[in-house]
C-alpha cells in the first residue's frame, strides 16, 4: 500500500520496557519510575470518587462538546466557553492544530530541543521545519523571529520547555509576540503551568485579548495526575477555535476523562499541595547538582535536565539501582518523585558519583 512519502522517514512511537520487564532483566524487586513527568501523588481523591459509579454508563457515548467540563474550565480560567477546544491529551490538540494549518508549502518554527510532537506532525503534514537551537536550554526568540516569513503558519513555544524545564518570561514573550506577523499562529504550550513558581512567568491567557494569533495549551495529564485518561485543551480566539473544531473527532474525550477532569479541577487544594512538595524536591535535586558540580538547567517544571556527555552511562547506573529516567543525546531528564523517592534517589546518586565521579 502507498502512504505519504514523509511517513517513510518516521518511526512509530515505541514505548519503553514495562516496569515488570525491567525488574526481571535487572533482577530488581522495586522500580521507581521517573521518566514521564507524571504526578507521583496521582490525582485528587475527588476524581476517583466521581468515577466510582460510572460502570453502568460505559455503553453511552460521551458528550461530544464536553459541555460540563467546558463550563468549569472556562470559569476557572475566566475565558469564554467557545474559546476552548478539548483533545485526548495535548498530543491530539497539537495534531489538530498541525492538521488544520500546515501544508507542504508552509513552514513551522520551533526550538530544539523541545516537545517532539511539534516536529512529528509537521513532518506528517509535509511542512518545512525550522528548528532553532536553545541557548542554555532557553528559547532563542530573536533567532526564531528571524526565521519567520510569509509561509510560517505556526511558531511553537513550550513554556516551561520540555525537556529543559527553562521558561520564557513575560516581558520577553510579549515582545516576541508583538513582532510576529498576525497571520502566524503562536502556540504557547503550558503543560507544566501549575508547577511554575517564577514571579515573572507570563500571564499568557491575558495575551488573548490583544493578540488573535495566540493560542495557549494546558493539560490534565501533569499536575492534575490524569495522564491515563487523556484530556488536554487549547484556548484561543473564538473564531479560530471554531475552525479548528472541524478537524476534531466528534467524541475524542471519553466520559470518564471528562468527569474525572471536572472533579480534579475543583480540588485546587490538592494541586497546591503537589506544587509545594514538587518545589521542595526540585530544590533539593538542584542543590545536590550544585554541590557535586553537575551541570543542569534550572527548572520551573516537575523535572530536571542534567547535561552530560555520559548520559547513557548515568542512565544505566540509575537503572541498575532501580530508577527509570529519560535518556537524551546530551543528558538525562529526571522527574521529581515523592519525598521518599527523592531521598532515596539522592542517596543512590551520591553512591554513583563516589564510584564513578561527576557525570559531566
Automatic annotation (TrEMBL):
Transferase found in the keyword field: yes
Q: Which residues carry this modification: N6-(pyridoxal phosphate)lysine?
A: 222
Enzyme class comes to transferase
Q: Tell me which residues make up the Aminotransferase class I/classII large domain.
A: 30-347
Give EC number(s), comma-separated.
2.6.1.9
Pathway as given in its UniProt record = Amino-acid biosynthesis; L-histidine biosynthesis; L-histidine from 5-phospho-alpha-D-ribose 1-diphosphate: step 7/9
Q: Which residues, by range, are in coiled-coil regions?
A: none
* The protein's required cofactors: pyridoxal 5'-phosphate
Output the InterPro entries linked to this UniProt entry. Answer: Aminotrans_II_pyridoxalP_BS (IPR001917), Aminotransferase_I/II_large (IPR004839), HisP_aminotrans (IPR005861), HistidinolP_aminotransfase (IPR050106), PyrdxlP-dep_Trfase (IPR015424), PyrdxlP-dep_Trfase_major (IPR015421), PyrdxlP-dep_Trfase_small (IPR015422)
Question: GO molecular function terms here?
Answer: histidinol-phosphate transaminase activity
Q: Which reaction does it catalyse?
A: L-histidinol phosphate + 2-oxoglutarate = 3-(imidazol-4-yl)-2-oxopropyl phosphate + L-glutamate
Keyword Membrane (UniProt): no
- Keywords of this entry: Amino-acid biosynthesis, Aminotransferase, Histidine biosynthesis, Pyridoxal phosphate, Transferase
> Which family is this sequence assigned to?
Belongs to the class-II pyridoxal-phosphate-dependent aminotransferase family. Histidinol-phosphate aminotransferase subfamily.
Describe the protein's quaternary organization and the partners it interacts with.
Answer: Homodimer.
UniProt protein name: Histidinol-phosphate aminotransferase
Q: Which organism is it from?
A: Scopulibacillus cellulosilyticus
Amino acid at each position: 500500500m502507498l502512504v505519504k512519502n514523509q511517513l517513510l522517514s518516521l518511526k512509530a512511537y515505541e514505548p519503553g520496557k514495562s516496569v515488570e520487564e525491567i525488574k526481571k532483566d535487572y533482577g530488581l524487586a522495586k522500580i521507581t519510575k521517573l521518566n514521564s513527568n507524571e504526578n507521583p501523588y496521582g490525582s485528587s481523591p475527588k476524581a476517583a470518587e466521581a468515577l466510582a459509579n460510572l460502570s453502568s454508563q460505559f455503553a453511552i457515548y460521551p458528550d461530544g462538546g464536553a459541555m460540563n467540563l467546558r463550563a468549569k474550565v472556562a470559569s476557572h480560567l475566566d475565558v469564554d466557553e467557545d474559546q476552548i477546544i478539548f483533545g485526548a491529551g495535548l498530543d491530539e490538540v497539537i495534531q489538530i492544530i498541525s492538521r488544520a494549518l500546515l501544508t507542504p508549502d508552509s513552514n513551522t518554527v520551533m526550538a530544539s530541543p523541545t516537545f517532539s510532537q511539534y516536529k512529528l506532525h509537521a513532518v506528517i503534514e509535509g511542512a518545512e521545519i525550522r528548528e532553532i537551537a536553545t541557548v542554555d536550554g532557553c528559547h532563542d526568540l530573536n533567532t526564531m523571529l528571524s526565521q519567520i516569513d510569509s509561509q510560517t503558519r505556526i511558531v511553537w513555544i513550550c513554556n516551561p520547555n520540555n525537556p529543559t524545564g527553562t521558561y520564557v518570561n513575560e516581558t520577553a514573550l510579549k515582545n516576541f509576540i508583538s513582532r510576529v506577523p498576525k497571520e502566524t499562529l503562536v502556540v504557547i504550550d503550558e503543560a507544566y503551568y501549575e508547577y511554575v513558581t517564577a514571579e515573572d512567568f507570563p500571564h499568557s491567557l491575558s495575551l488573548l485579548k490583544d493578540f488573535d494569533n495566540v493560542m495557549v495549551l494546558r493539560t490534565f495529564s501533569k499536575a492534575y495526575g490524569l495522564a491515563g485518561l487523556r484530556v488536554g485543551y487549547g484556548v484561543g480566539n473564538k473564531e479560530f477555535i471554531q475552525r479548528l473544531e472541524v478537524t476534531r473527532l466528534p467524541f475524542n474525550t471519553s466520559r470518564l476523562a471528562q468527569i474525572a477532569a471536572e472533579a480534579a479541577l475543583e480540588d485546587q487544594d490538592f494541586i497546591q499541595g503537589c506544587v509545594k512538595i514538587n518545589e521542595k524536591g526540585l530544590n533539593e535535586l538542584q542543590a545536590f547538582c550544585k554541590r557535586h558540580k553537575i551541570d543542569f538547567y534550572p527548572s520551573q517544571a516537575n523535572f530536571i535536565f542534567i547535561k552530560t556527555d555520559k548520559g547513557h552511562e548515568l542512565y544505566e547506573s540509575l537503572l541498575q539501582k532501580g530508577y527509570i529516567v529519560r535518556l537524551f543525546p546530551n543528558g538525562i531528564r529526571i522527574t521529581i518523585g515523592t519525598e521518599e523517592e527523592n531521598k532515596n534517589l539522592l542517596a543512590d546518586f551520591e553512591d554513583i558519583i563516589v564510584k564513578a565521579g561527576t557525570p559531566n
